[in-house]
Structures are given as structure tokens and as C-alpha cells.
Write a structure and sequence with these properties.
This protein is mainly alpha-helical and 65 residues long. The chain has two helices and two strands; from the N terminus they run ββαα. The longest helix is centred in the C-terminal third of the chain and has 22 residues.
Amino acid sequence: MKNNSKGLDEGTTLPGVAKSPDEAISRRLKALYDAVEQEEIPDRFLDLLERLDAAESASNRNAEG
């Protein structure tokens, strides 16, 4: 049966249109993750990571004796 307003067969979905609420949530989460992944890491976080790495290295050297 044709959907007269759009000219699509019943049950046909458009590209980018979610078939279920779970799929819609999944697509939105992926888009959000992709956007966050593209953001730069703030300098203060990079500095903190460097300090943590240095502290861990010093701790390992002290433990090895």
C-alpha cells in the first residue's frame, strides 16, 4: 500500500530516520560521542595527566628500590 502523502511503501523508512526509539537514542548518542571526540583536550587536563604520569613513574622507581 502506498503512502500517498510521501509516495513511500508502507513500512519504508527514509535514510536517517530511526525505526525505533532505541535506534533514535543510539544515533543521538553516537552523534554526541563523535562531537565530544573531536573536541580538544584542555591544557589543564594535559598538564594534570603529565603530572600523574611523573608521579606514577617516581612511585614505580621507589618501589623497585
